[in-house]
Amino acid sequence: MITASHNPKEDNGYKLYWENGAQIIPPHDEAISASILENLMPWGFPDNRATFQQNNELLTNPIDQLERKYFSEIRKRYCFKRGDYDSSKSHRVCYTAMHGVGARWVQLAFEAFKLPHYIPVSSQLQPDPNFPTVKFPNPEEGKGALALSIETANENDCSLILANDPDADRLAVAEKTPNGNWYIFTGNEIAALFADWIWKNW
């Protein structure tokens, strides 16, 4: 799996899993590394590469189909009050993709639930494997990783922050408290809030 995850930019690369479903351990790591070093030059393509790709039924891009199906499913399963909110009392949300791939999908989720558009941390919205604005792009690390989010949220009168790590499989949530400080929820607290919401609505 190719990834730019929540680690420093020097660790960008890939995760490898063995047939047991776990990440690789010795001696497999050394054999794989040796194979990589033996194959540093890209393999050639047929001269008729474009025709080959167009006519090969095994080469498909399912992203549009998966996108439609996924957002249709979350609307049916988890959207209990679609568009049913008081805009005068709704919380403004600040979002950061932390130089990763999450922004488009979060935008589509907001649209699926008919939520007001989030306020983006513009300097962190587009993918960038160098992570120029954050040394350690793990939103779960706390205020250090969320510094620009907190700054953007304060400037735009937002009371909530949502943050993904670069490959968008981690989520941080922070709320502005009445005294003006930011409370960053733990993963257990976020899970409890999700569970409570789903239980009440079901």
Q: What percentage of residues falls in helices of 4 or more residues?
A: 25-40%
Determine the strand fraction and express it as a percent band: 5-15%
Quick one: overall form?
Answer: globular
By CATH, the superfamily of the domain at 77-201 comes out as Alpha-D-Glucose-1,6-Bisphosphate, subunit A, domain 3
**How many DSSP-defined strands?**
7
Tell me the span between the first and last alpha carbons: 36 Å
At CATH level 3, the topology of the domain at 77-201 is Alpha-D-Glucose-1,6-Bisphosphate, Chain A, domain 3
Uncertain runs with pLDDT below 50, 5 residues or more?
Answer: none
H/E element string?
EEHHHEHEHEEEH
- Estimate the mean pLDDT confidence: 88
Task: Report the total helices.
Answer: 6
* Order of neighbouring strands in the sheet with most strands: 4-3-5-6-7
Protein name: Phosphoglucomutase
Domain Alpha-D-phosphohexomutase alpha/beta/alpha: 1-38, 70-176
Keywords: Isomerase, Magnesium, Metal-binding
GO molecular function, one term: phosphopentomutase activity
